[in-house]
Amino acid sequence: MAKEFFHAIAYRDGKYWVISFPDHQDLYTQAYTFKEVELMAKDVIHCAREIPISDIELAVTLYFDDNFETEEMLEFKESVKDFPNPSRWDYLWWGFTEFFRYGKHS
Question: Cα angle vertex 46, ends 105, 29, to 5°?
Answer without folding.
Answer: 30
